[in-house]
Design a protein that fits this description.
Length: 359
């Protein structure tokens, strides 16, 4: 495959390395020549051992257009929708947009979805945890009904964001990036929306359908020029009446990325990074299945999933499909409205993916 990646930051490096690991041709585009140089001289060789001279680098506006199988958007989320719609106009076979899909105002999402469908572009969202090996074991258990009727589901992504800044040493803190601004897609609600997405995915696997109600409590912090939520608590209800809980924060040390499904006949738990480089899946009363992997492995697996999806043409909904990412953005947007208005917010999917979908 021939791929183009927008963004030379941390995600852009991971996507470039994963693409090269699969033998794909790679071009990286950024608006900042300094970011391209930092990728070439610092980030990529520090992470992966050496710069890959086969990777093309282009300043925005000078990159080739219309010759790619897959275009990936790895910029800050407040640029995702505009770049994604621009990418769709190039008519690649597929498009991958990093999470969160957009900002919580949902601006342009209905148009993005319509344009991708009209253009025949298979679009994905970068919630790579749902296609991880350990979470796939949880998914299979739920799909098979091995736990009996599911009674509740809890997912937590609790992680102090000091680890994020340690991986991005060119950033001094939250105000240097979108992470410190919830309206730009940052804060706990955006950065750790993996948890909301994983909850939705497991609910689908259990046959409980899409989220239709969101009751939220967010703890906003406004200081030193930043404006973000450090804690995002979600009570979610699906169209079948099934309910459960999501917790996302940017303050917990040590990290806790965990999910538990409780059924009438037993339960099972998923853990991400319970030890460095190890995920687990553990059914009640059983031995944990330990999956050893690195962070770069997550991106390789994600891109393999995209490649397999394109080749199989099975018609089965991908766990990282654009539609699943759009559903997660509706939950994120509903959470902020729920906090602002002090009430439960309903989601009407028939109204599309814009603000009108929130009731």
């Amino acid at each position: 495959m021939k791929v183009k990646i927008f963004g030379a930051g941390s995600i852009g490096n991971h996507l470039a390395h994963a693409s090269r690991s699969l033998g794909w041709q790679v071009d990286v585009v950024d608006i900042d020549p300094g970011a391209l140089q930092r990728m070439r001289d610092d980030i990529y060789p520090a992470r992966y051992g050496a710069w890959d001279e086969s990777i093309g680098q282009h300043v925005a506006g000078d990159a080739p257009v219309g010759c790619y199988d897959l275009i990936m958007i790895g910029t800050p989320p407040d640029h995702h929708v505009g770049l994604a719609r621009q990418a769709i106009a190039e008519r690649p076979a597929a498009l991958l947009i990093e999470k969160p899909l957009s900002t919580p105002d949902l601006d342009g999402l209905s148009e993005l979805h319509a344009e991708a469908e009209a253009g025949g572009v298979v679009a994905f969202t970068g919630y790579d945890h749902v296609v991880g090996e350990a979470s796939s074991l949880m998914t299979a258990t739920l799909e098979e009904g091995a736990l009996g009727e599911i009674e509740t589901l809890d997912v937590e992504f609790r992680e102090h964001w000091g680890g994020i800044f340690a991986a991005h040493p060119w950033l001094a803190g939250p105000t240097d990036t979108y992470l410190g601004f919830w309206r730009r897609g940052g804060g706990a609600s955006g950065e750790h929306s993996h948890a909301a997405n994983l909850w939705q995915h497991f609910a689908h696997a259990a046959g409980q359908g899409s989220v239709v109600e969101v009751q939220a409590k967010l703890d906003y912090i406004t200081e030193d020029g930043a404006d973000y939520d450090r804690l995002c608590l979600l009570n979610l209800t699906t169209q079948t009446g099934f309910c459960g809980r999501v917790v996302q924060d940017v303050v917990t040390k040590p990290v806790r990325k965990w999910a538990r499904a409780q059924g009438r006949d037993g339960g099972a738990e998923w853990r991400c990074g319970f030890e460095l480089g190890k995920d687990t899946f553990t059914p009640d009363g059983g031995e944990p299945t330990v999956i050893s992997k690195t962070r770069p492995d997550d991106f390789v697996r994600e891109l393999r999933h995209i490649e397999d999806t394109l080749e199989s043409k099975s018609g089965k909904t991908s766990p990282i499909s654009l539609e699943r990412g759009l559903d997660t953005m509706l939950v994120v947007a509903a959470a902020h409205r729920s906090q602002a208005e002090g009430r439960t917010v309903r989601i009407d999917r028939a109204a599309g993916f814009g603000p009108n979908a929130l009731i």
